[in-house]
Design goal:
Rossmann fold; two-stranded parallel ribbon; alpha/beta; about 15% strand; about 290 residues; 12 strands
Length: about 290
């Protein structure tokens, strides 16, 4: 089985590559330096050259705040390029894994979102990822759409790395406490993705680490594991000035994983501890 990974040097893509290597897959990783996904002809040429059996599309425009200012660029990458990839996958009969997000929902539900819950994106980024889902569903049949949330990993900047950097310099930090979701360790998510591509159980899935917390509670646990005395000041969203409205409730039901026999990801606190142990040497050296 030949696997093509977009965004191979990104936070999720780099972990997907590691998991594919561990499992002995024949894979090729692409990043922006190797392929501009907004260039259809170049993308088509790469597909015809590699003729993948599976495409794991993890490349995306993910800067939520910048997306509000660069709408066309965001949609070109998250919608148009995704549609082209879906069409190319269909033309060569390849499976497609599309990584989506909790931002497709409004966050006003009192319960965890189901895969068929009504979407209601609040931001340009969320709208673009939802439209990317529509492109996938319209243009190919062999797809896995995986909505995840609050991702962090060894590669790239994320909430955990930001908190660790702040914790080494400040005695306290303000963190919102009225946005709730599930932190997701990309190493865990990568294992699930690789297990999925071995099957034909296509459809939409929610995949996050188990358990829920607020961003403030997440920060408290990060500092505890890092043995940092940094105090977390619990604040509300309206006390934190940003130009993007984010979902208050990002919790998502993993019922579809259970129905199709996939193993849920570990609890977020267990995975955070694993991640912290993995990066301990880097943290100690800084």
């Amino acid at each position: 089985m030949r696997v093509l990974v977009t965004g191979a040097k990104g936070q999720l893509g780099s972990d997907v590559i590691l998991e594919l290597e561990n499992e002995g897959f024949n894979y090729t990783g692409l990043d922006i330096n190797k392929l501009d996904l907004t260039d259809f002809q170049s993308t088509r040429d790469v597909f015809l050259e590699y003729m993948p059996d599976v495409v794991i599309h993890s490349a995306a425009f993910t800067d939520v705040e910048k997306a509000e200012l660069e709408v066309e660029k965001c949609r070109c990458i998250n919608v148009d390029a995704t549609g082209n990839i879906a069409m190319l996958c269909n033309s060569i009969n390849a499976k497609l894994v599309y990584i989506s997000t909790d931002y497709v929902f409004s966050g006003d539900s009192a319960e965890p979102y189901e895969i068929d819950s009504k979407p209601g994106p609040l931001s340009v980024y969320g709208r673009s990822k939802l439209d990317g889902e529509f492109e996938v569903m319209r243009k190919t049949d062999k797809f896995f759409i995986i909505r995840t949330s609050w991702a962090y990993g060894v590669s790239g900047k994320n909430f955990v790395s930001t908190m660790l950097r702040i914790g080494k310099k400040q005695e306290s930090v303000d963190v919102v406490s009225d946005q709730v979701g599930s932190p997701t360790y990309t190493a865990d998510l990568s294992k699930l993705i690789v297990s999925m591509i071995k099957t034909e159980k296509y459809g939409v899935y929610h995949a996050t680490n188990e358990g829920f917390c607020s961003w403030a509670e997440f920060a408290v646990e990060i500092f505890r594991l890092a043995n940092l005395p940094t105090k977390v000041n619990f604040i509300t969203t309206d006390m934190y000035p940003v130009n993007v409205i984010r979902p208050k409730n990002s919790t998502m039901s993993k019922r579809a994983l259970d129905i199709n026999g996939f193993v849920r990801l570990p609890h977020w606190m267990i995975s955070l501890e694993s991640y912290m142990k993995k990066i301990a040497y880097e943290f100690d050296d800084k």
